[in-house]
């Protein structure tokens, strides 16, 4: 790979910039409902809660109402649902924010995330508390969020939309994601990619570009 060809860098959010732990959300709902993690995982999957919310087919109120319906717990309050839903969101290490700010002096930075409005509101709070940066939009030239775009990775159309709306070319673009399917889909369009896998973080992966 020729690093000198890269002009634009697109970042995934979860486990790339923000540390996450998805089972924590399932367990948080388990504590609320008394049901097992395994039963809840199946319920969420069968009702496509993540996909429907993260593609914008459900609004935040619609999502909360569906959660109450699926869990058969109409008494659940909005804040209880939001807190459990956000349990998977951990922290944003300040060093990663500093790296993004340094990279922004040399490259155009973009964010592309499969996410929901409830998560993004919480992520912005985490970001501000950890680094003083008010919101994700302050770190990137443009932020692309699945629930606003109506489509999710790894659908190739979402990458085509990003390239077109950002006005950038695939061959001059680097994409970082922790999901292998997302990486493959981007790579097929000619986008250069880095599959972020723990324990290394973007601090180590992006040494050649810093």
From TrEMBL:
Transmembrane segments: none
Source species: Ravibacter arvi
Name used for this protein in its record: HAD family phosphatase
Matching SUPFAM superfamilies: HAD-like
């Amino acid at each position: 790979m020729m690093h000198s060809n890269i002009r634009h860098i697109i970042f995934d959010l979860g486990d790339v910039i923000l540390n996450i732990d998805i089972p924590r959300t399932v367990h948080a709902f388990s504590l609320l409902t008394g049901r097992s993690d395994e039963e809840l995982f199946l319920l969420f999957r069968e009702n496509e809660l993540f996909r429907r919310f993260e593609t914008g087919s459900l609004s935040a109120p619609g999502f909360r109402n569906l959660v109450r319906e699926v869990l058969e717990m109409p008494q659940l309050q909005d804040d209880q649902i939001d807190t459990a839903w956000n349990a998977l969101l951990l922290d944003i290490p300040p060093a990663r924010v500093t790296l993004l700010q340094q990279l922004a002096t040399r490259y155009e930075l973009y964010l592309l995330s499969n996410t929901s409005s409830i998560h993004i509101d919480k992520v912005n709070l985490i970001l501000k508390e950890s680094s003083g940066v008010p919101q994700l939009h302050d770190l990137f030239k443009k932020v692309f969020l699945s629930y606003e775009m109506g489509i999710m990775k790894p659908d190739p159309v979402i990458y085509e939309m990003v390239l077109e709306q950002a006005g950038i070319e695939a061959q001059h673009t680097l994409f970082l994601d922790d999901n292998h399917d997302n990486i493959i889909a981007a790579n097929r369009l000619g986008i250069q990619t880095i599959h972020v896998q723990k324990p290394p973080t973007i601090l180590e992966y992006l040494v050649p570009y810093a």
